[in-house]
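Trying the structure run again after the queue cleared.
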Amino acid sequence: MSGTVALLGWSLPAIESARKMGRSHVVVSFPEFEPYAREHDIPFVGWNFNEWSEKSNSLQLRELLDPFGVDLAIPLYEETVEWSGALNSLYRDDPRLLNRAYLFRNKAVMKRKALLAGFRVGLFEEVHTREQVRQFMERLNEANLQLPGEEDAWVHMKPFSAAGTVGHKLLRNQDQIEERVVDGDFPCLVESHLPGQEFSVEAFIHQGKIRFLNVTEYVKLGYSNFIPAGPELESKRARIRDATERLVASFGIEYGMIHPEWFLTEDDTLSFGEVACRIPGGHIFELMEKAHGFDPMQGLILCSDPSVSEETIEAFFPEEEGGTGDFAGSVMVYPRPGRIRNLEIPEELKEDPFFESHTLIPPSEHKVPEGREGFGNHYGTIFFRGDDPTRMRELLVHYQDVNFFN
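Done. Tokens:
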């Protein structure tokens, strides 16, 4: 291999990483990005990932990529995972790569696979109606030996194939089934609430072996996280690595990177949440580069290529523990519902020695709606960097609740 890599999706940092490492690449994304790509000399193929038919499939896409010498495809976003799997199954003559891509794109199927591999998962079902959601909640109540007047068991509703928190609804009681669930939510996955601290792992894999494992500590899912994890979670690294190695083996992953999410309780019970095989959200790659001193996108490109030598892989990745000595964290800022007009950055934030930068911009006046799906769209991110994980956690907890827009 070591030919041209096709980057499926649009990400300027990913393009820049490929350029810096001197790797021949072509970007495959929606046609509206083509004018920018032409202006900046970015090799580009326009493609609609939302259409899969006899006239728009992996065979046609491969024909468009052949003039570039492509022999490897890397998904940048969730919606490109199956396209990448289809292309790589052709390049490597291995149809299981496409099957595995579908596995990563369906939360119900991946949980069944994890269950068969012996991992602890929450109770889950596929549902098609509100009544089935209600029945699922009632069965959880029964299993929890609920008494009259006690709270209902929490139920999480998730689309099968959406990334992260997109479409995620947490139902705390049966009344919310009627209030919040709409016909467009179905079919979907429902699952019980998993206890414990949630965190993610970013495992870079080559020849079926984990070559670098990062642990990202979630302070609040969808809002804030930092890298490397604090000492409490890092002390469980051996257990986390063992579970991730078993996940890699049971899912048959040989190359690339996976991004599983786990839950760890105080009594050291580890539960599987879900897993993705694309660039993680929450600015995790940016934080990893600051905390560990290497470019994760370049690591992903190297680990996705079966022809890269053992010596190249070993020379690229640093030691897993220690890093640069700094903790890197971020808070994604979501405006509160209501009309917003102004951006206010507290002086105490600007003066804090851990504050690094932000991407917040003054808004045009508009109304932020109630009842947004998932967490809604974040309006920017605040980045922190420092040498004390306790202080980092305190800052993230504080600023995830600050109202920057009014």
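The domain at 196-323 is CATH 3.30.470.20 (D-amino Acid Aminotransferase; Chain A, domain 1). Worth checking whether this holds up in the mutant runs.
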